[in-house]
Amino acid sequence: MSESFDVIVIGSGPGGYVCAIRCAQLGMKTAIVERENLGGICLNWGCIPTKALLRSSEIWHLVHRLNEFGFSASDLKFDLAKIVERSRKVAGQLSNGVRTLMRKNKITVIDGSAKLTGKKGIAVTKDGKTSAYDAKNLVLATGARAREFKGLEADGKLIWTYRHAMLPKAFPRSLLVVGSGAIGIEFASFYRTLGVEVTVVELLDRILPVEDEEVSAFADKAFRKQGMTIRTATTVEKLTKSDNSVTAVLKAKDGSTSTITVDRVIVAVGIVGNVEDIGLEQAGIRVERTHVVVNEWCETGVAGIFAIGDLVGPPWLAHKAMHEGVIVAERIAGVTGVHPLDTSNIPGCTYCWPQVASIGLTEARAKELGRKIKVGKFPAIGNGKAIALGEAEGFVKTVFDTETGELLGAHMIGAEVTELIQGFSIARALEATEADLQHVVFPHPTLSEMMHESVLAADGRPLHI
Amino acid sequence: MPPDILMPALSPTMEEGKLAKWHVKEGDTVKPGDILAEIETDKATMEYEAVDEGKIGKLLVPEGTEGVKVNSPIARLITENGNDTGAQAAKPGPRPAPPPPDQTAKSAPAPSQAKPASAPPSKPAVKSGNGASAQDAEARVFASPLAKRIAEGKGIDLSRISGSGPRGRIIKADVEAAIAAGAPEKQAAEARSTRPAAALPVSEAPSAAPAGLALPDATRFYQDGEFEAVPNDSMRKSIARRLTSAKALVPHYYLTIECDIGALLQARARLNERSPKADGAYKLSVNDFVVKAAAQALIKHPEVNASWTDAAILRHKHADIGIAVDLNPGLITPILFHAETKGLIELSGEMKNLAERARAKKLKPQEYEGGSFAISNLGMFGIREFTAIINPPHSAILAIGSAEERAVVRDGKITAASMMSVTMSCDHRVIDGAVGARFLQTLRAYLEEPAAMLL
User: Fold this and answer.
1) Is the domain of B284 the same as that of B317?
2) A194-203, A312-321, B58-67, B102-111: range with lowest mean pLDDT
3) What is the mean pLDDT of residues A3-22?
4) Is the CB of B146 less than 8 angstroms away from the CB of A431?
5) Nearest CA of chain B to the CA of A429: how many Å?
6) Fewer C-beta neighbours within 10 Å, C or N terminus of chain A?
7) What are the pLDDT digits (tens) for A38-66?
8) Residue A209 preceded by cis peptide, ω within 30
9) In whole numbers, what is the pLDDT of chain A averaged over residues?
10) Domain coordinates of chain A in residue numbers?
């Protein structure tokens, strides 16, 4: 007889494992299935190890400025193997952390690949052996992977996805990054800071296309200053592989083509949901454009089967998946007062240098929606802490509804803005208006004062500019 | 008249109790939180606290009286300004699931002196009775800054909106839902609140039913664990509120016709066949024809395309037809504005677009507010005929059943025909029986011979 659970979560990425923990907290007998490493892409191949890599490149950037801060050193070197090793260690530590969390919450961890066998059952295959389990509720959290583009298929040697880019065995001298979303730009920034000749190609007319136009423009300028080559409104027509290099034919919007030869190519042109081989069709679960179709409660339409995270679509962010995991757990348990996730309240962070963070509507989008808006902007050069840190590059921009004072969006670029954006997330979640934010006491001297000044600037009353 | 202090209900089932001991005497000044009396039931003795400031006028029930009925007056309270605070004068001491301390403190009129009742753990919890819920209506309203600003801008009375945020806090979505559902504006609400408190509907009840007509809370008939409580979201509350008041306040009557839509189906098939394959492709539904026919009929019969007000009947110059869209769960009625000016392809395309955006919850309020008439179609579910509830400010709604082959008698012979039943719910204040019937005659003529719409 198969073992049965109240809830089985399939996939142990941030959405899945958080959902499992919340289910267990709510007293449900819970299991989680993972075919690879606990923690999924985020912990093992995404958010976390890249942050470890970017920390190394940040330090490399700083040691080149030792003079400015009153130090001297010579013969600076870096050891690529050690940088990668540290990144893997960080990932390993966190993956073990998830295992501990599962044990602490008495969640059964099932290793293997799961397949739906009916509305309430799954079969898990590991090393050719299959076991059956059933559950009153199933939560699909199988995540996503890099999108493959015809002609740009990754081979792991010359053409990389994020996964290969994280484990360089040797350092390329030159690199072509295809796609300027968060993943593409973070790798471009990492490799450029360590001295690689980096070219970024973006199909749309600006880099970081989901960000506010002013942020994209600022980042573009900063990256070019760092020596990055950026080709917007450009596509990769063709890649020709040689022994140890790749020649790319680039086609600009005006139809002109050019060629570039690089050591390696990173393809970061979006992701596709992991919808294959889990028996979705047989279970009657609808899949559209590689994503499972769900309603605002993450319900698939098949009673007792939910889907969360990257599997159900954008924004492809770990914190969105975690939040959905909690919502599903609480809905299953019948907790009252649960709200669907408001996707306009999900902040996004890109850990390039300078960092980029945002929440809500861009200025252009707010206008498109016909909102009457007022915009505040404050540059880092007016902030004491930023100057003391030697990081006076960047700005904070806020967009408010003129009539209601609703904070429609906030857009930041500069040092540590990924740590600052939560302030605006809280403001949006609590539905603070510009008047409330103007009354908040921000500590001096901190970078967060830029947020305050930006809100004041929206009413034409910034203090330090 | 000085307000009465009423016998409290210490449990949901309590009907009467003993007034064990008075802690105050006539002429005493009391402030919120002061113990007024001890009330005894067969299970426990509880302290009874004052909510309002005032002077004890007269003790109506002597100490030690048994069998005092719940909600019967036990004392008179003279408040400073002589305001009628009605049943709010006092409430039982211990309360279940105490609200956060600050809320308790601030809900009392004199925060500096009020102290929350302390509930000895051995005593049973008490649910607030009618008195307490009426009192809640005047307590501090918890709302987000944005919700307050929007409500202020639109003149919405926040005290009449129930919040769906943490701990019942009113958030933007609640105010927007209330606006969409035609929330009472401040003035109206204020006018109501000057009536005696007892006439106010219970604050939590989403219905507009007059006091005394409230239905019992269903949870008290069932054991915990025997049901799943699916919380009402703001859409569900809005549906409950609007339809309850519509059904209670609008004098409905119903007219049904049978339409032979054979010619319509043929026309539809011919037109659909003419659809281009790629750009500009369309697929007309029977419902698109119904919308078109209704729009034409409404322009011909402006007395049906109308809204009731106390002073006048508003006859609308355009046929703005709301179409009920199933959101499963929930429903919404986006509006095809100026439907009489639009062709079938345009109506069909616009309807598709509205329905898609309705399901994605992307409709703007102006796309589902107002309108002059509505259509609800359950034909696709095989419903032969039904009656719908009018959605004010409309004065009528069409309920469309399924198109099916039925045996009909023609010239004395039984023959098969494609029949569709259409039932119109009418507001008798606006549409008299014969007026509604004439409208349906026109509608049937259009549905049975679509070309007649060209005349």
Assistant:
1) yes
2) B102-111
3) 97
4) yes
5) 10
6) N
7) 999 999 999 999 999 999 999 999 999 99
8) no
9) 95
10) 3-146+272-343, 159-269, 354-458
Q: Which residue type does B418 have? A: S
- pLDDT at site B222: 85
Strands B396-410 and B373-377: parallel
What is the total count of domains within chain B? Answer: 3
Q: Tell which of B142, B144, B148, B149 to mutate to test the A interface (max A CBs under 10 Å).
A: B149
Check whether residue B289 and residue B385 sit in a common domain.
yes
- To test the contact with chain B by mutation, choose from A431, A434, A438 the residue with the greatest count of B C-beta atoms within 10 A, namely A431
Q: Name the domain boundary from B249, B270, B295.
A: B249
Does position A448 have pLDDT exceeding 80, yes or no?
Answer: yes
Strands B335-336 and B373-377: unpaired
Name residue, tokens 């093992």.
A44
Q: Cβ–Cβ contacts within 10 Å for residue B425, how many?
A: 26
Mean pLDDT by 10 residues, chain B (455 residues): 73 74 86 83 72 82 83 79 44 40 39 38 38 47 91 86 85 88 54 35 37 66 83 83 89 95 94 89 94 95 94 93 91 93 93 91 83 94 94 94 92 93 96 95 95 89
Q: Alpha-carbon distance A172 to B306, whole Å? A: 75
Judged against a pLDDT cut of 90, whether residue A239 lies above it is answered with yes
Residues of B in Cβ contact (< 8 Å) with A405: 145-146, 149
What is the mean predicted confidence (pLDDT) over A259-275?
A: 95
Chain A: give the shortest CA distance to residue B235, in Å. 13
Residue of B nearest to A342 (CA): B173
- B290 and B413 part of one domain: yes
B266 and B398 both lie in a single domain: yes
Amino acid identity of residue B241, one-letter, is R
pLDDT of A426 over the 70 cut: yes
CATH number of A159-269: 3.50.50.60
Chain A, 293 to 312: residues with Cβ < 8 Å from chain B are: 296
Is residue B378 located within the same domain as residue B403?
yes
DSSP reduced 3-state for A112: coil
Residues of B in contact with A336 (CB under 8 A): 229, 231
Write out the CATH class of domain A3-146+272-343: alpha beta
**B67 and B110 housed in the same domain:** yes
How big is chain B, counted in residues? 455
Chain B residues inside the 8 Å CB shell of A299: none
Q: Which residue of A has its CA nearest to B163?
A: A337
Chain A CA closest to residue B327? A295
A354-458 under CATH 3.30.390.30, yes or no: yes
Same domain assignment for residues B435 and B380: yes
Residue B132, pLDDT score: 40
Nearest to B149 among A296, A336, A433 (CB): A433
Domain, as residue range, for B178: 141-249
Q: Among A129-133, A142-146, B148-152, B291-295, name the one with the lowest average pLDDT.
A: B148-152
Minimal Cα distance from B329: which residue of A? A295
CATH classification at residue B237:
4.10.320.10
Tell me the nearest-neighbour CA distance from A356 into chain B, angstroms.
Answer: 27
**Domain CATH number, residue B86:** 2.40.50.100
- pLDDT confidence of residue B72: 82
Compute the nearest-CA separation of B98 from chain A (Å). Answer: 17
Q: What is the pLDDT of residue B12?
A: 60
Average pLDDT of the segment spanning A337-366? 95
A444 is catalytic: yes
Question: Are B341 and B373 contacting, i.e. CB atoms less than 8 angstroms apart?
Answer: no
- The amino acid at residue B440 is L
CB B444 within 8 A of CB B421: no
**Of A404, A434, A440, which to mutate for an interface test with B (greatest number of B Cβ within 10 Å)?**
A404
- For residue A223, what is the enclosing H or E element? helix A213-225
Q: In which residue are the tokens 């740590």 written?
A: A419
Reported confidence tier of residue A2, pLDDT bands at 50, 70, 90: confident
Task: Please check whether the two domains, A159-269 and A354-458, share a CATH topology.
Answer: no
- H or E stretch at B39: strand B35-40
| Cα atoms found within 13 Å of the Cα of residue B436, Cβ hemisphere only | 23
